[in-house]
Design a protein that fits this description.
With about 260 residues, the chain is of the alpha/beta class. It has one domain (about 1-215): 3-Layer(aba) Sandwich (Rossmann fold). Helix content is about 25%, strand content about 25%. It contains six helices and eleven strands. The protein has helices spanning about 35-50, 65-75, 95-105, 125-135, 190-195, 245-255, and strands at about 1-5, 10, 30-35, 55-60, 80-85, 110-115, 140-150, 150-160, 160-170, 170-175, 200. A nine-stranded mixed sheet has the order 9-8-7-10-6-1-4-5-11, with helices on both faces. Helix 2 (about 65-75) packs across helix 5 and helix 3 (about 95-105) packs across helix 4 (about 125-135). The longest helix is centred in the N-terminal third of the chain and has 17 residues, at about 35-50. The mean pLDDT is about 95. The structure holds flavin-adenine dinucleotide. Flavin-adenine dinucleotide binds near residues 7, 115, 118 and 123.
């Protein structure tokens, strides 16, 4: 089976993140990691390859630095990678990103594409549906469980109050939540092997994409305003003068916590 996993490099959400003057995320100075949900997608792709005997190809669109994340994902066990790299891509909106990724995916012709349900930076959560539309394939989104057999994929689609069982024919794109599995850590052997695994780099010209339709110039949306999160307010301190219990209950009632 030809399995593709989409991997996006993002600024670590556990570290300080900044916006640049033009309202885009400062990726250069950020601590860069694989988008958390994509680690689960990689694990699911590897498990599927183990059971069906296929190969896992990683696909990423991002700057030079995204190579770090590709190598990490390869060290987890993926077989090869395709990196869409072009200076004109900086500032691409979700529509442009999906256009470029769809072109890249067409060069691979996957049976199944697995990706995260959302990224921790853009958090658009729309790429899987956009790609399904562009590629005219099945979209199975928000999976907490995936089964593939007899040319179709079945997911348990995670909801706030339960789950739905949804089935569709391959080729399909499946987006996953962090409830689907427990991603493996790269082994020392995996890290060594990753250094020699093939990574193909494609530019916009290779993909026949007009540079004016991507990047800041071709963006369908723009950040028109942004403001830092307000600093945290100091908490309420209750000093026990024999009435701390009453004060605590008063506070909880006032905050409608009880
Ligand atoms: C005006 C504007 C400027 C922007 N400038 C930039 C910029 O310069 N650089 C930048 O990186 N982003 C930029 N973004 C954000 C970028 O458009 C989104 O990150 C992108 O469209 C995907 O949205 P998402 O990450 O929220 O996807 P989601 O739909 O939340 O992601 C779902 C899954 O799709 C996959 N995926 C998403 N993006 C990629 C990718 N690039 N490669 C491989 N897989 C992917 C991942 O598996 C991810 O888990 C900009 C957005 C706007 C509105």
């Amino acid at each position: 089976m030809n399995i593709v996993v989409l991997v996006k490099q993002v600024p670590d959400s556990g570290a300080e993140r900044q916006l640049t003057a033009d309202g885009t995320i400062d990726r250069e100075n950020a601590t860069r990691v694989i988008n958390e949900m994509d680690e689960y997608a990689i694990e699911e792709g590897l498990r599927l390859a183990d059971t069906t005997g296929g190969e896992v190809t990683l696909v990423t669109m991002g700057p030079d630095e995204a190579t770090e994340s590709i190598r990490k994902a390869l060290s987890m066990g993926a077989h090869k990678a395709l990196h869409v790299l072009d200076p004109a891509l900086h500032g691409s909106c979700a529509l442009a990103t999906s256009r470029v990724l769809a072109q890249a995916l067409q060069t691979i012709n996957p049976d199944i594409i697995i990706c995260g349900a959302e990224s921790t930076d853009g958090r658009v959560g729309a790429l899987p549906a956009m790609l399904a539309e562009r590629l005219n394939i099945t979209a199975l989104t928000g999976a907490r469980k995936l089964t593939v057999e007899d040319g179709s994929a079945t997911i348990e689609r995670q909801l706030d109050d339960g789950y739905q069982v949804v089935q569709g024919s391959l080729p399909a794109i499946v987006s996953v939540w962090d409830t689907i599995n427990e991603p493996r850590y790269p082994s020392f052997r995996g890290i060594m092997q990753a250094k020699s695994k093939p990574v193909t780099t494609l530019s916009l010209a290779d993909l026949n994409v007009d540079p004016s339709t991507v990047g800041s110039a071709g963006a369908s949306t723009e950040v028109v305003q942004h403001a830092p999160r307000p600093p945290r307010q100091a908490g309420v301190k209750i000093v026990d003068e024999g009435d701390a219990g009453d004060k605590l209950v008063e506070f909880l009632l006032a905050e409608k916590l009880v």
